[in-house]
Amino acid sequence: MQTLDLPVVSSEPLASVLNILRLGIIGPGSFVGSNSRQFPLRVYGGQILAQAVVAAYATFANEYKGRQIHSLTSAFVRPGDVGTPTYFSVDDILDGNSFSTRSVKASQNGKTIFSARASFQEVQSGPEHCRAMPETVDPGQLESSAAFFSSLNTAPAQNMAMFNPVDLRHVDGPIWLRPQKHPQTRTQIWFRLRSPLPQQSSQLLHRAMLVYAADQFMLEPILRAHGLFWLNPRLSPATLNHSTWWHRDVNMSDWILADLSTPSAQGGRGLSIAEFFQNGTHIATMAQEGMVRVKDGPRQGASDTRHAGENRK
Question: Is 54 helix (H, G, I), strand (E, B) or coil?
Answer without folding.
Answer: helix
